[in-house]
Amino acid sequence: MGEYIVEMQGIVKRFPGVLALNDVQFKLRPGTVHSLMGENGAGKSTLMKILAGVYTLDEGTILIEGEQVSIQDPRDGLAHGISMIHQELMFVPELTAAENIFLGRELRNKAGMVSKKAMIEAAQKVFDEWGINIDPSAQMKTLSVAQAQMVEIAKAIAFGSKIIIMDEPTSAITEREVARLHAMIAKLRAAGTAIIYITHKMDEVFAISDELTVFRDGTWVATEPAAKMDRNGLIALMVGRELTHLFPKSEAEIGDVILEVEHLNRGRQVKDVSFQVRRGEILGFAGLMGSGRTEVLETVFGIHAAESGTIKVKGKEVKIREPHQAIEAGLGLLTEDRKKTGIMGVLSVRDNMSVAALSRFAPGGILRKRQIEEECEAQRQALALKTPSLNQQIQNLSGGNQQKVLLSRWLLTDPDILIIDEPTRGIDVGAKSEIHRLMSELAKQGKAIIMVSSEMPEILGMSDRVVVMCEGRLVGEVSRAEATQENIMELATRFSEEAVA
Amino acid sequence: MSNQTPTTSSLQVIKKGFQLGEFVRKYMIIGILILFVTALAILTNGNSIEPVNLVNVIRQVSAIGIIGVGMTFVIITLGIDLSVGSILGLSAVVAASLAQVPGGALVKFQGIDVPVVVAVLAGLGVGAFAGFINGVLISKFRLAPFIATLGMMSIARGLAYIYTGDGRPFSGLKDDYNYLGQGYIFNDPNQPLSGIPVPVVLFVLVAVVATFLLNYTKFGRFTYAIGGNETAARVSGISIPRVTLLIYTMSGLLAGLAGVLWSARIGSGNSTLGTGIELDAITATIIGGTSFKGGIGTIWGTVVGALLIGVINNGLDLLNVSPFWQIVVKGCIIIVAIIIDERKNSKKS
Asked: Which of chain A's residues have a Cβ under 8 Å away from the Cβ of B239?
């Protein structure tokens, strides 16, 4: 056996329109904990899904214990001793822990029938050996996330896996459970199992890792021993890109406070969030995926019900329980997921554009078709929308043009406050800068704009002020002048569970 | 922005080709109707296109058509209403019981004589109320439309049986009531079957009003928007529960209207009336181009769909084909219609 248990070389993975991994390498030593770091979309999870057989690679080679292998599906991965514990745990909730461990390779008795008893005994043996305190005959749905995680680990052990991949295993468990998980990882490591650990939490990384590999924008950046790294050095590696794209951000006059949100709460995703935004201002919401940015703004907009908190528009408190109340109060929300919550695919461009402003277009319930036609046509020209006609089904337009139609949808309601969640996700460069130009324009007109973005350059290029979220809390605020990739990333990874043993 | 012009004009060219395909798809159903009418006219030596026969066909499908109009709204929003046939039956017995000529042996309410208008309104009200309950179950209790209306299908039919008691229909109805099903307007007194049957007039009226609602009002846009993408519609400020409630209430109301017309047509209120008509209405709606995937559909399409069903049934009658075959043919039509719908929409995604 060579020095490495896994060697991945020249890995390339393409998704439609995106180069997810570009000539990436990764080497894993047996009996070590190796952490993968990087921003959202850096390629960590994609690479691991290739190793586990969830995705297949387009180019490159994988060597396991020095031998080249082909991994086409998760069964191939398992056969080569690779188990992946996904961020969203995958199990059958109605079955017992033991049955989940032996899912697909159920133990049988002499008559060839599936034997629950044999499986429970075998599971109990694994649990005893590894100090897992769970009843193997308990239904999975009755277990906590941390317990279910342990069952998954036991499953990997029962499979005889030598490589266990854990994708953000601590994103949904408590501090004590984290400590228990880390103790388990130490045990596995001591037994010679290699652990690949994906996380955003800096403290954990330094507490448990032997080595670190950093990815950025689908490329490999560095692999270093953890002992040689510190927090700031790691952040610099993660974000160290040059800002090449020019943002058409023009200075707008910043006016009065128009929206104030105070002590907003909703479950784990929104914890005591307070912020305000002024006329003419573009407020950027930064944070890692799952940090609660979208949830905060969707709660403000009435898509989810807030548990507590107040919202004031122009100094007056408003009750928002449903989106139509938010619209009446002068808000607009261009949602994150264009296809799921934005476009009405089979409807025409005209219908998609005018739908949020129908109360204006149809006083008394009867449509003013000429007015709709004129205003939609004006939008089409102002936004340089590329569509053969307003009758065209919106699903036949390109992503960038769909996004323009959705922007028009909100412009037609003439909102005072426009929330735009991922304004340029999945659209081409040309349309991107046009949308940025429009946002600048709107701010100039005295509208307040709140922008959620996972793209650091966009946050830095467009925001007058940036607020950063982590674990549902608003952890910091930086002005346009102060904002850098490094200080935003530092805030975004400021997790509450600082002390990790 | 001036450099956009070439792109725009090249798109204009594409637009023409695109619209030809669109045109064919949109109006294919009319072509099919003409084809069937012509074929049957040839096969029956022109008997099938005698005016009397044509008027008769339209009258036969008026109940399917009226219910189909409500079903169009329902299916556009990705719903389904299985209860319309039962609601028709319940409305028919309630209205008929109140429209009986007093004094007969089989009169439900001895000694009570209400104006025909009240009987009609009661029939419509019962239908609207049952539809309203469907709407509440779907919008407030979040039941799947299939389940909610399946329940109502059973409930309304059961109530119709209970209401009739011994199962005998309510007959001996007042002339004014029967006029709604049997009468004609623009009738030449010298020719008893001339003019336009009242149910046909009402069918046309319902279709016109519904077309207006769907195309010229906010409610109509909301209907399409919900079918196009319910979440997006909600984010755009549409109150989904309110629109859903209205649509199912309307579907119930129209089933009630069909119940009144049908009982008036046959001069009695029978608790089994309308059994299975929900399937005819759904068939008419789907072959009329309303998509089972939501967001697409027209009233005129449903009207043509209903006519097509009527023409085929009538043609097979005239050709002395067994009525059992008519059922088989109907089944084939709905399957073909769904296949066309699938292919139309799968091309785009």
From this structure: 322, 324
- Global ipTM: 0.87
Q: Whole-prediction pTM value? A: 0.81
Alpha-carbon gap, residue A387 to B339, rounded angstroms: 29
User: Letter for the amino acid at A1?
Assistant: M
Burial class of residue A139 (count of CB atoms within 10 Å of its CB; 0-12, 13-18, 19+) = middle
Segment (H or E) for B175:
helix B175-182
- Tokens standing for A401? 């043009």
Torsion sign (Cα): A302, A308, A313, A319:
positive
Give yes or no for A384 touching B (CB within 8 A): yes
Residue B227 has pLDDT above 90, yes or no: yes
Nearest-by-Cβ selection for A344 from B218, B220, B295: B295
Q: Give the CATH number of domain A6-239; options: 3.40.50.300, 1.10.10.10, 1.20.1110.10, 3.40.30.10.
A: 3.40.50.300
Mean pLDDT score, A208-232: 91
- The shortest C-alpha distance from A347 to chain B (Å) reads 6
**Does pLDDT of B4 surpass 50?**
no
Residues 6 or more apart in contact with residue A110 via CB below 8 angstroms: none
Distance between CA atoms of residues B50 and B30, nearest Å: 20
Nearest CA in chain B to A410: B236
A345 touching B (Cβ < 8 Å) = yes
Contact: B225, A347; criterion CB under 8 Å: yes
Q: Does A324 touch chain B (CB under 8 A)?
A: yes
Q: Among A331, A280, A281, which residue's Cα sits nearest to residue A303?
A: A331
| Residue pairs spanning A and B at CB distance below 8 A | 107
pLDDT digits (tens, 9 = 90+) for A352-388: 999 999 999 999 999 999 999 999 999 999 988 888 8
Could A362 and B4 be called an inter-chain contact, meaning their C-beta atoms sit closer than 8 Å? no
Q: Where are the domains of chain B?
A: 45-346
CATH superfamily for A245-330+415-501 is P-loop containing nucleotide triphosphate hydrolases (3.40.50.300)
A343 in B contact zone (CB under 8 Å): yes
CA A355 to chain B, closest CA, distance in angstroms equals: 7
